[in-house]
């Protein structure tokens, strides 16, 4: 299999579309939510669980895997898919977000970013060329270009310079990349400045990437502002290429993002809150530890068909969390990922049948997640 | 289904036997190892995992479940099997071990044991009658009688008095128990005194329990001394009743116990060391975190067919443990339980074909666990 993307159906109601993303290992219907496997595993899930829910594309974090277990080990294993026994498709981010958010003492020059590991303080240099080398070694189907991800808010001039550098780095990534069974996506930046977002989209579009990430959002700005940025950006990206809104994955944002033409999403949010005992349900969030569920022998989500909801009760889940049992984290993670998958199915049904806005309104009224 | 035990085959080589244990929910071939689900879940495992390995009988801890989530909640759920979605058979211990080992400030009188919860310091009284009430509420197939479990070493007079009290409590348990779909096993005590062990076995045998636990062993005494106690005890217990060596489950002890006529075992050992990153394998123990496995892309146990060994490498498992990922605990727990199940299959094959001693010698030579 090669890599391709085809728009199969475009909504009449909004910019939403249904597409077929063919990677080197799977045929994936879009819009799609990608669970995050930061350290080579989607936390508290097995590969069988992910496949049972129907996921065909997950994300690995270059920054984390580069530091631990290290590129050499993952390469020697035959890449991350083989290392982690994941037979479907994989996307790796570039570490651009993590070197700014997690690493210590990062220093940016035109060459790249010097940073210290958050694990052991060791010193490292990420350049566009080095990151491409690492991502080629990890061997995902889709590698993200190395970018500069600024915090919100950021000064206009700083944002402009970082964006311009991100564009130069995008070109260097394209030049350095040479793995035939992997594609590179460019990343649009520009913080929350319309002018910069538009320029970034145009510039990257002109570079002819096979797909585009929209980065630097969901970093603390108000959600309406994030959606506004999508309104400016998406129309300037090529119709026939997939668009990936990076780091976004709350149910409401899936609806809003798809309506604005987004095809791919990822976020640690559903798995992270799950380990904390918070479930996303069709009736809103459920804080599993809450004393009100001590004797609640009903399912976590009465409208859900996942194994957690068909086999276990809220009272049992609450007990597991109170007792600190790993099974609790597993069962709620399973549910949250299953729930997001179902939300996306509902979204696609809306797109397909011209009932998107209606279904969206119903969803927001019912489960103000 | 009712409750019965039938010896199907007796070894010519030793006291070992193959039996059929019918409970109210399963038909179980013995000798059998029971995974421990202390707080209503075998740690890091799902019910589906346990069934996939082939377990039909697991253990729940009365002390823990009584304290959290509490008897009322488990009863209201319809018992522990329903609460935890476990469709097969269940055994509950009596808390006799935990009130002495875990609880604070326990005080023993003829009536029972006063203790403070290790969770919140609250004060509780366990009497034989109260424990039967709790175990009836938990609703396992097999409930263990409430006993006094002394440390090793213990003074002879103290051991004798505790044993005599345990016998009186055993009678009180039988009298108080009245759940038709549950049986009560008596527990032999006597620390490491031959005279006491023999007296305890004879006394309990005369009370006509449908099965017998051998308790108060594996509490720090040398293993040969534990085996010696079995040599004294087992011949005095009725042939036609199952014998359960409580709290024992290392691979070597399974061989030694079965050879001495033990039919049932339980232990947290295989699951506890798994969460710590230690695997039981056909070639001895593997400390998964060990740096020597960083680039070892071979299975955890080359002779094992479990999902962990067929799908993942030592290098990946090591990475999971180094990175603190839950999946590591799950995969090694799965393997250790699968391994113990296979050891028991090998033991039964030895019993069946008159090759027990030969297989045992081969096992000990290969994997000095």
TrEMBL record, chains A, B:
Residues 247-253, 271-275 are annotated as: RNA binding. The active site is at 93 (proton acceptor), 266 (nucleophile). Binds 1 zinc ion per subunit. Pathway: tRNA modification; tRNA-queuosine biosynthesis. Keywords: Glycosyltransferase, Metal-binding, Queuosine biosynthesis, Transferase, tRNA processing, Zinc. Its EC number is 2.4.2.29. Its cofactor is Zn(2+). GO terms for molecular function: metal ion binding; tRNA-guanosine(34) queuine transglycosylase activity. One of its GO terms (biological process) is tRNA queuosine(34) biosynthetic process. It catalyses: 7-aminomethyl-7-carbaguanine + guanosine(34) in tRNA = 7-aminomethyl-7-carbaguanosine(34) in tRNA + guanine. Homodimer. Within each dimer, one monomer is responsible for RNA recognition and catalysis, while the other monomer binds to the replacement base PreQ1. Belongs to the queuine tRNA-ribosyltransferase family. Catalyzes the base-exchange of a guanine (G) residue with the queuine precursor 7-aminomethyl-7-deazaguanine (PreQ1) at position 34 (anticodon wobble position) in tRNAs with GU(N) anticodons (tRNA-Asp, -Asn, -His and -Tyr). Catalysis occurs through a double-displacement mechanism. The nucleophile active site attacks the C1' of nucleotide 34 to detach the guanine base from the RNA, forming a covalent enzyme-RNA intermediate. The proton acceptor active site deprotonates the incoming PreQ1, allowing a nucleophilic attack on the C1' of the ribose to form the product. HAMAP family: Q_tRNA_Tgt. This is Queuine tRNA-ribosyltransferase. It comes from Hydrogenispora ethanolica.
